[in-house]
Each structure stands twice: as structure tokens, then as C-alpha cells.
Design brief:
Helix 4 packs antiparallel against helix 6 and helix 4 packs antiparallel against helix 11. The termini are far apart. This protein has 476 residues and is α+β, with helices and mostly antiparallel strands. It has three domains: 86 residues, Phosphorylase Kinase, domain 1; 172 residues, Transferase(Phosphotransferase) domain 1 (Transferase(Phosphotransferase), domain 1), CATH 1.10.510; 122 residues, Sandwich (Tumour Suppressor Smad4). The relative contact order is 0.07. Strand 5 and strand 6 form a beta hairpin. It holds the Pfam family Pkinase. InterPro entries: Kinase-like_dom_sf, Prot_kinase_dom, Ser/Thr_Kinases-Pseudokinases. GO terms for molecular function: DNA binding; kinase activity. Keywords: DNA-binding, Kinase, Transferase. It comes from Sphaerotilus uruguayifluvii.
């Protein structure tokens, strides 16, 4: 009798191995970038822009077959035609096991890199050095604002990402840019409220997923985003970084399920975090409120979680409040949220008085349109939106930061501080007028204008006095 031949177990493809796609192309695999519950994401050696995700299971495994079917369904989603920065499958891997090929832009790194750099510096006793070296507050706010906008657009199509985590978000390696791309798109699905998929990355799964009560949805995406955002800004997990978990590691799972209070719960201090960056240094009051709504009210009631559009508006408003701690004045090179003393809370360096201008947004309601309510005090409506301006040009858009249309609106003009002058560059085709305190005259501005510093109040009108329009008020 011949001995029975035993088939060798199929190895998961790794560095140096080759896979073949359905177009006949062979790809030699590079280093592993990420690993999830369904597959492994690796680079390819021939093209740095191409990534391959291969199944954790052999091709004949029912889980691998189901996953392949899911990828084929993802192909039909309206992602590319809506110009969303999501790395969609370019080809399917057919040998030695299921998977797909995706393409990314050059110069991107996992968002996880920023988190790791900041956390490691804290662990090594180096304080904020890793936080500042990885781009400081400005880079974090800009990336989160962009990611929130992308997610809001995706959710607007009724589609959930399904497995949002720092490993699946790639961002610009350069600190000067804020590009964001999402990978691991095989979980994309129409799921506004619920789905049959119960997938998540440890630490980022919503409570209903961990408890097995519901599947992925736009609401589970919101939870994952909020956890990432809080970590990125404060270097803390909103639940597992608390004192209760520090004292007893067995409480970590209940914490992730939302059974313990979040670290900034306004009424229950039992799980406070003793470390991390103070929230008031990195979060506006609006952002702090959104985090509380998500992690306190949104634990049991997913519908209480702030929508992605709310997050986008709040982060765009926070970006507009940034002040650079200039290294020319012995600063740390990071940015900080505007304060009256212009003092950087990260290094206690004060910026020179007059180096930063703060504009406050209002709406001017034309008396002709107010009718019998045309009292002068009713014509100026404060909105609460602000914009800081320093030596680098800042674009003022048709819609102010913190509003739904800001990111997509046209640039009306650019402003920057040039010594004792405020430089104003009006974009062609836009109507802008300047009004000075004590005068009712609106002076039309065209091209570039230099406004000398005189310490008086001014108003920039983005329209004419006979129509309701936006205005920016400032003292210069």
C-alpha cells in the first residue's frame, strides 16, 4: 500500500513571494503594512504605489470565498465617479489565494505613524517631542478635517467604510500637505443604520460591534473616527487610558464596550486619565462637546453620535484658529489655538504683539431687505466664526470655516501680515469692499492692496450694501 500523501498547508504570501492577478500580472510582495481580521496588506517591490491585500485563508475556505464575493460587490459602488480618495481594487488576486491590488498616491504614510511617534516619546520620558516632531497640532487638525470631509461625503452616499483605523488611513508624509486616502475598502457597504458585517479593529470598534448586537454602519464609522481623533490630539484612548483600566487590566474589555465612563465624563470621574495632553490645549469647546456627545450619549444610543459633517465643520473651524509658534522667535514650530496673549502652551513662547490678526465673521443684513425691522442694530448678525492671519497667506472663502460649504466654496481673497501692513489680494471676479470705523463709505478693492496699521476697526464686505452678504471685522 502506498503511503497517503498529505497536502502541505498553504502559506500566507509574505515578503519576496509572488502573487498573480486576474489580468495575468505577477507581483512580488514587499513588507507588511497592516493586518486585519480578513487579510494582510503588503507593498509590492516593482511599484511603490501599488499595494496588495491577500486573504488570511486558503482560496477554498468559505470565508475566503465570501470575502472575494464582497470585493466584487465593492467594485460596483459609486466611489471612483464621486472622486473619493479611497484605494479601490484595480485587479483581483487569483493565485495563490484571494485578494486584490490597489493603488495609492506617492508620499503617503499610515496615520498610525503619527500616533506611535507621539506615544513612544511619552513612554520614553521625552514629553511632547514626538507630538511636535510629527507635525504638532496644525498637522493633526488639518488631517482630521480632511478625513472628516471625506467620510461625510462617503456617508452622504449611504456607504460605510466598515473598518476605520489608523492603519487604514494614509496621510501626506510631508507636514505641509494634508492629503488623506483610505485603504482596506473591501468592507465598503450600503449601511446607514446596520448591516450583517461585524468587523472592527481592536480599540476602534463601536460598543454595539463588540457586544455582537449590530453590524457595521455609518454610526460605527463615526465611533471609530472619534476614537482616532481623540487619540491623535490627546495621545489618550477615550476609554482604556483611564485610571480604572490602569489599576486593573481586566477592565479593558468592559471599557471598550462602553461599560466604564469615558476619561472626560463630566459627572463620573472614576475613570479619569492622569496623563495625556490637556484637552483645552488641543480641542476647541465645540470639539470637546462633540467628543462628549459621542463617548457619553452615543455609547448606548448610536444616533446621538455627531454626524461626520459636524466633525468636519468643527475641525475646519479649529484649523482657522491656529497660530504658528515661530522658531524665529525661539518658538517650538508647532501651532496652538489662538489666545489673547498669543502664548504657545507647548513651550510658553509668546509671539510678538501685532504679528497675528484675528478676524471675526458676521452677516450684514441689508436694510432694504429687512423692511420694518431695518434698525441699524439688527443689520449686523454675529456668527461666531473666526479666522487668524499671520505672515503666510490665508484664503478667505465665500463660506467661513465652520460651515457646511466652506471646503467647497471659492476663494474670494487672500490676506497676510507684511510687517506693519496687511496685504489683501482680491481674486479676479469677486466683489470686496473695505469700510473703516466712523465711515459709511465702502471702498471697492481690486487686485492687491496694502492696508497700513493704524489701530482702527475695519470691515471687509463680501458684497454690496443693498444685498445681504458676509463680512469680516477686525482691528488694524
Amino acid at each position: 500500500m502506498k503511503p497517503t500523501a498529505h497536502a502541505r498547508p498553504e502559506k500566507v504570501p509574505g515578503e519576496g513571494q509572488r502573487v498573480q492577478d486576474d489580468r495575468g500580472h505577477v507581483h512580488e510582495l514587499g513588507k507588511k503594512l497592516a493586518e486585519g481580521g480578513q487579510g494582510i496588506v503588503v507593498t509590492t517591490k516593482a511599484d511603490a504605489r501599488l499595494l496588495v491585500k491577500v486573504s488570511r485563508w486558503p482560496g477554498t475556505d468559505p470565508r475566503s470565498i465570501d470575502w472575494k464575493r464582497q470585493i466584487e460587490q465593492v467594485h460596483r459602488l459609486p466611489i471612483t465617479e464621486n472622486d473619493l480618495p479611497i484605494a479601490m481594487p484595480k485587479a483581483l488576486i487569483v493565485k495563490p489565494r484571494a485578494g486584490y491590488v490597489m493603488e495609492l498616491m506617492d508620499g503617503l504614510v499610515p496615520l498610525e505613524q503619527l500616533l506611535t511617534q507621539a506615544q513612544q516619546a511619552f513612554l520614553d520620558g521625552e514629553g511632547l517631542s514626538g507630538y511636535l516632531a510629527s507635525g504638532g497640532l496644525r498637522r493633526r487638525l488639518r488631517l482630521l478635517a480632511r478625513l472628516a470631509r471625506v467620510m461625510a461625503r462617503l456617508h452622504g452616499l449611504g456607504i460605510a467604510h466598515g473598518d476605520l483605523s489608523p492603519k487604514n488611513v494614509f496621510v501626506s508624509e510631508s507636514h505641509e500637505h494634508a492629503e488623506v486616502w483610505l485603504i482596506d475598502c473591501d468592507n465598503l457597504t450600503y449601511a446607514v443604520r446596520d448591516s450583517s458585517l461585524q468587523l472592527y479593529t481592536p480599540d476602534y470598534g463601536a460598543p454595539e460591534l463588540l457586544c455582537g448586537e449590530r453590524g457595521i454602519s455609518t454610526y460605527t464609522d463615526i465611533w471609530s473616527f472619534a476614537v482616532m481623533a481623540f487619540q491623535l490630539l490627546t495621545v489618550l484612548h477615550p476609554f482604556k487610558s483611564g485610571d480604572l483600566v490602569d489599576q486593573d487590566s481586566e477592565r479593558e474589555e468592559p471599557a471598550l464596550r462602553g461599560e466604564l465612563p469615558w476619561v472626560d465624563h463630566p459627572e463620573d470621574e472614576s475613570n479619569r486619565a492622569s496623563l495625556g495632553i490637556p484637552r483645552e490645549l488641543v480641542c476647541t469647546p465645540v470639539l470637546r462637546d462633540l467628543f462628549d456627545r459621542c463617548f457619553r450619549l452615543g455609547v448606548l444610543a448610536a444616533g446621538e453620535r455627531p454626524l461626520m459633517a459636524e466633525w468636519a465643520e468643527a475641525f475646519e473651524a479649529a484649523v482657522a484658529m491656529q497660530v504658528l509658534c515661530d522658531t524665529e522667535h525661539d518658538g517650538c514650530g508647532s501651532t496652538f489655538l489662538w489666545n489673547r496673549d498669543l502664548c504657545c502652551p507647548f513651550c510658553d513662547t509668546a509671539q510678538p504683539a501685532g504679528s497675528v490678526l484675528r478676524l471675526v465673521h458676521s452677516v450684514f443684513a441689508a436694510p432694504a431687505e429687512l423692511g420694518e425691522l431695518a434698525d441699524p442694530k439688527n443689520c449686523w448678525i454675529m456668527t461666531g466664526h473666526v479666522q487668524t492671519v499671520a505672515s503666510e497667506p490665508v484664503a478667505l472663502r465665500a463660506a467661513p470655516p465652520g460651515t457646511a460649504c466652506h471646503a467647497e466654496s471659492d476663494s474670494v481673497m487672500s490676506l497676510w501680515v507684511a510687517g506693519d501692513d496687511l496685504a489683501i489680494q482680491v481674486e479676479h471676479g469677486h466683489q470686496v469692499s473695505l469700510q473703516t470705523s466712523g465711515s459709511t463709505r465702502l471702498l471697492p478693492l481690486r487686485g492687491r492692496v496694502q492696508l497700513p496699521r493704524r489701530g482702527v476697526a475695519h470691515v471687509l464686505h463680501l458684497g454690496t450694501g443693498d444685498r445681504t452678504h458676509d463680512v469680516w471685522r477686525f482691528k488694524w
